Amino acid sequence: MVHGEAWTIKEFFTYPNEYIYWTIQIVMYPFMTGLVAGAFVLSSLYHVFGVKQLKGIARFSLVFSFALLPVAMLPLLMHLQQPLRGIEVMLTPHFTSAIAAFGIVFSTYGMIVASELWFVFRKHFVETALALKAIEGRTVLQQGQYLLFSILTLGAWDISHDALEADERAVKKLAAAGIPVACFLHGYAGFIFGSVKANALWMTPLMPVIFICSAVVSGIALCILTYILTMEIRKQLSRRRRLAHPELPSMDELKSAEAHVVAMTSRYLLMFMVAAITLELLDLIFRGYTAVKSWDILRSVIYERDFVNIFVVQYGLGNLVPFVLFLIPGLTIRRAAVGTVLVLLGVFMMRWNVVIGGQAFSSSFSGFMHYVLPLWPDSMETLKEGLVGALIVAGVPFCLFYLLNKVMPVFKETH
Amino acid sequence: MISRRSFCKKSLLIAGGLAIPLSCLELFDPKRLLAEKDEKGARWVFLVDTRKCVGCGFCVKGCKVENEVPYDANVTRTWVERYVVTKDGKTHIDSPKGARDGFPNKGIDIGHGKLEEIKDEDIEKAFFVPKLCNQCDNPPCVQVCPVGATYQTADGVVLVDRKWCIGCGYCIMGCPYGVRFFHPVFHVAEKCNFCYHRITKGMQTACVDSCAFGARRVGNLRDPEDPVTKVIMTERVNVLKEEYGTKPQVFYLGLSKEVK
């Protein structure tokens, strides 16, 4: 069986070699990259623009963005037919290809986030290392921790007031430099699609901008949702711990902090949502208005075959419903949680409709192809490019976030 | 002792310097520059006479055997399309298994294993169109390949390095003609290369050799005495999907407006 045959159903005339080659992993790729960029932009709103109300979520989203970073690459690797050669993109980049920019933009961005994190958490590293150093007769685990934190300080043990202020300035500069790079990271993901002239649905200069806007939307939504979830877990934990340690913040204190942050962040979410939806609709209307040669087949895909995916799930459930949920006054945590889940669904469906929808018609404009998502893997191929592969990609950032949080506690007051 | 600031500066400088990939040096490859200027070299082109094609599919068979594309796999480097235009103005197209076995059924294959029967009296015109890689002068597949595994030779043929391709599928997406696919055995991008191993030794391509009707011909555009060049220069030839700006180098005689 040839690659793509397992999940492609053909109808009418398609060229013999045409299959759905870019599957759910290529849907996951811009989705995950978008989350990285969005989470970073959210954290920068505090660091660069001084939106003080977002302080609570800024550090959280910065660490989360770092946890998401390696996962932006994972779907690409899983989709490659020769994954062991994936590193060649970094080693022998062919610069006329949009994918070749990946190595440079991705590593630049990674370095910026890593440095920013270091400046934010340097005080914590030093304090932890010093505290561990003071312990007499360290256990193996403590010794390991001591080594780890000593290395993480990179030899900068100075935590005087001046040094910490210098750190703050560095964070601000890095965050400012990071915004364009984060946008570029995602913009070029849109460019990968927008520059494929052979594909009538993808071919639009608006593609990178649409991708950036919806990336910020999805990143903010995921940060709000994860923030709510972690705060809920903390509340439950603190209820138990407060019995032993009464100095810990009370349930009510945690709750009000949470509500405040969520309300503030969701306002930014709404702003970016308006921009994203406007651009997407502009693209759709423009295509219909100009009605070039490809419009006939695009119309039948958009308004007939993918109608439910595009208008019901993406625009209806994923955009309109959360929009209304956020706009109704007196935003509750529960409503915000439902809203953000729907927003994430909407952005995911936007990626799905672009990637899969773009391959739903033949280049001959005479036939259609339908992607049947492999649910249960029966081969390596259907494992990698099916539901299981997508779930692996979706789960990894949370595991990484858990581990990172052990080293860089997002809720600890550091400065 | 080196200060932290100067250490950071210097290491950034070194890292930046190392980051300039050696591939950039390709720009100054004198051999390549010479080859591109070489007027005496070949520019391989293809001529398809659709009026002569009978849809027997021998070319598809010949190509599969010659180029190690698994015989039963539902992908092919070259294929033949059947066009049936009915009196109501509709165009019915199919290419079952790329026409490897010709067109054994009169009905048009519409997918899902179904055939659409068309009455003889409803047919306005019908014809066959062989397809293959257009070896474009401005190949989008070469442009989008992230590692340079797809490249163009000085004589115009676009090749794929099977040892270098990472299998991302970007070239498959970038080709407006749908000629590319993943090789079922090597798991890398695959396409027609005008039987480069044959034409560079003065032989014909496998599909040209298999065609009993002279519907396929390969030639050198830089040789004015080449019979194929003479036809391209003097007769009314056409190319597929010119609007994509890829400058295809497969020329068709007797192309109809229905051809996609």
UniProtKB/TrEMBL annotation, chain A:
Family statement: Belongs to the NrfD family.
Membrane topology value: Multi-pass membrane protein
Principal subcellular localisation of the protein: membrane
Domain of life: Bacteria
Source organism of the structure: Geomonas oryzisoli
InterPro entries on file: Electron_transfer_protein (IPR052049), NrfD-like (IPR005614)
Protein name as it appears in the record: Polysulfide reductase NrfD
Membrane-spanning ranges: 20-45, 57-78, 98-121, 174-194, 206-230, 268-287, 307-328, 340-366, 386-404
Key words, A-Z: Cell membrane, Membrane, Transmembrane, Transmembrane helix
Subcellular location: Cell membrane
Lineage, highest ranks first: Bacteria, Pseudomonadati, Thermodesulfobacteriota, Desulfuromonadia, Geobacterales
TrEMBL record, chain B:
CDD domains registered for this protein in UniProt: PsrB (cd10551)
Keywords per UniProt: 4Fe-4S, Iron, Iron-sulfur, Metal-binding
Domain of life: Bacteria
Keyword 4Fe-4S: yes
Keyword Translocase: no
Signal peptide residue numbers: none
PROSITE patterns for this protein: 4FE4S_FER_1, 4FE4S_FER_2
Chain ranges of the 4Fe-4S ferredoxin-type domain: 44-74, 124-155, 156-185
Coiled coil regions in record: none
Pfam families per UniProt: Fer4_11 (PF13247)
InterPro entries cross-referenced by the UniProt entry: 4Fe4S_Fe-S-bd (IPR017896), 4Fe4S_Fe_S_CS (IPR017900), ET_IronSulfur_Cluster-Binding (IPR050954)
Protein name: 4Fe-4S dicluster domain-containing protein
Organism, as annotated: Geomonas oryzisoli
